[in-house]
Design a protein that fits this description.
This protein is α+β, with helices and mostly antiparallel strands. Helices cover 34% and strands 18% of the residues. The chain is built from 13 helices and 14 strands. The strands form two sheets. Strands 7, 8, 9, 10, 11, 12, 13 and 14 form an eight-stranded mixed β-sheet that branches. Strands 1, 2, 3, 4, 5 and 6 form a six-stranded mixed β-sheet that branches. Helix 4 runs parallel beside helix 9, helix 6 crosses helix 7 and helix 8 packs across helix 10. The chain is globular and about 60 Å long. The protein starts with 8 loop residues before the first helix and ends with a helix. InterPro entries: Gln_synt_N_sf (IPR036651), Gln_synth/guanido_kin_cat_dom (IPR014746), Gln_synth_cat_dom (IPR008146), Gln_synth_gly_rich_site (IPR027303). Keywords: Ligase, Magnesium. It holds the Pfam family Gln-synt_C.
Length: 456
């Protein structure tokens, strides 16, 4: 469900009055997952529903640059720098608990002047995939698990990140996976996080310490894909703000520290009958259904081509290495964390697939859209999966792209994903990511200076 289910514009205005809101942060998630938009006084927000921002805001790299002389990009995005019309989703209205004055934040959808959704906006891409499910009488159910690192503040990007100092006055120097005491080192921060999430009506669940030094994980209650993408989007903002308040950084980089595991966004996913609510991954006798196997077959078939979306940066591929709690394969197995697609032990109505390949750095809207798209294609094409893996798959062959250029080439070439996600989205997205990689290649790394400067 949304943060405020079935909210109308009138309900939103009433809520703003009841909470004496004086300012509204009008947010649009861009292709990187960054919050763009405008901050308006309450009176201006009430008067000017349908505010405008330039279309090109959705066509920027993470560094704020635009592709030039890219035919596909120029064909997709107008060269007149035209406006998009933003319309608030009332169900996404919530507080900004760290603000000094009563402030609200609300997520907006992007529209063209003719009233159609901007098809390459992340929320629009996810809505497009969800409509394909709805047209067949299906409703996806997802449950994200988001990993992240807490670090010392780092104002010099040339210096490596370090684990933060906790209540004891010491930083972690050893692996503390699932340690309660290690989480309690940061109690003041997490008390604020839970308080903020309660005020925002974010339905978060379990907090754990992951394997890395200062690495944590948070589970979200399962539910509607669009609402959960909104929750992850809001949570990332919230965690970063709370961490700054406590003198540290929170990062969702896929691999922020050398020698430590990377951070993932595992997404549990199942599909229910929209009328009966029955989990279609289970047959009437309680056994796995044929469509369940087809869903897995779709994930296996199309995830390699989807990697540029679920592993969207150069840094993302530093996580996808052997024996680091990140899969390098597209195998599947029962309660097996070494494979790309894990089947948790569950009851008949809870039967689901956990996609373990997605990085924490992925845009939550696009990550959910593309993993659901892969499963959808498997179901409608009745794709059969490979045999289930019984043991460890860590030594299995690499079955995923090992870098962003290869991943982009595969995404561009996959016509079935292009049809499901939208041609203009693929053109805009790949152009932006190609430019980001070009920008990265202009930077000389410390490794190159250390090992090449005097030796080659």
């Amino acid at each position: 469900m949304s943060i405020r289910e079935n909210f109308s514009d009138a309900d939103m205005d009433l809520w703003l009055n009841e909470n004496r809101v004086t300012e509204i942060e009008c947010l649009v998630p861009d292709l990187t997952g960054v919050a763009r938009g405008k901050i308006l006084p309450r009176a201006k927000f009430t008067k000017e529903r349908g505010m405008r921002i330039p279309e090109a805001v959705l066509g920027m790299t993470v560094t704020g640059n635009y592709p030039t002389e890219n035919v596909a990009y120029d064909r997709a995005i107008s060269n007149t720098d035209r406006d998009m019309i933003l319309r608030a989703d009332p169900g996404s209205i919530t507080t900004v608990p760290w603000a000094m004055d009563p402030t609200a934040q609300v997520i907006h959808d992007c529209y063209f002047a003719d009233g159609t959704l901007v098809d390459y906006a992340p929320r629009s891409v996810l809505r497009r995939v969800l409509k394909l499910y709805a047209d067949r009488g299906w409703k996806p159910v997802v449950g994200p698990e988001l990993e992240f690192y807490l670090t010392e503040k780092n104002i010099d990007p040339d210096l490596p990140l370090k684990a933060p100092v906790g209540r004891s006055g010491r930083a972690e120097t050893s692996r503390q996976v699932y340690s309660i005491d290690a989480v309690n080192e940061f109690d003041p921060l997490f008390e604020d996080i839970y308080d903020y999430c309660a005020l925002m009506n974010l339905d978060v669940d379990t907090l754990i310490h992951e394997t890395g030094a200062g690495q944590m994980g948070l589970n979200f209650q399962h539910g509607d894909a669009l609402a959960l993408a909104d929750n992850v989007f809001y949570f990332k903002r919230t965690l970063r703000e709370a961490a700054l308040k406590h003198g540290m950084y929170a990062t969702f980089m896929a691999k922020p520290m050398a020698g430590e595991p990377g951070s993932a966004m595992h997404i549990h996913q199942s599909v229910s009958d929209a009328v009966t609510g029955h989990n279609i991954f289970s047959a009437p006798d309680g056994s796995p259904s044929a469509i369940f196997k087809h869903y897995i077959g779709g994930l296996q078939r199309y995830t390699p081509a989807a990697m540029a979306i679920v592993a969207p940066y150069v840094n993302s591929y530093r996580r996808i290495v052997r024996h680091t709690a990140a899969p390098i394969n597209i195998q599947w197995g029962m309660d097996n964390r070494t494979v790309g697609f894990r089947i948790p032990i569950s009851g008949v109505e809870q039967r689901r697939v956990e996609n373990r390949i997605i990085g924490a750095d992925a845009n939550p809207y696009l990550a959910m859209a593309v993993t659901l798209a892969c499963g959808y294609l498997g179901m409608i094409d009745q794709l059969e999966p490979t045999p289930m893996i019984g043991g460890s798959a860590y030594d299995h062959s690499f079955e995923l792209p090992q870098g962003l250029p290869q991943a982009l080439e595969m995404l561009r070439s996959e016509d079935r994903l292009r049809a499901v996600l939208g041609e203009r989205f693929i053109d805009v997205y790949t152009a932006i990511k190609e430019l980001e990689h070009q920008e990265f290649m202009t930077v000389i790394s410390p490794w190159e200076r250390e090992h090449l400067l005097l030796h080659v």
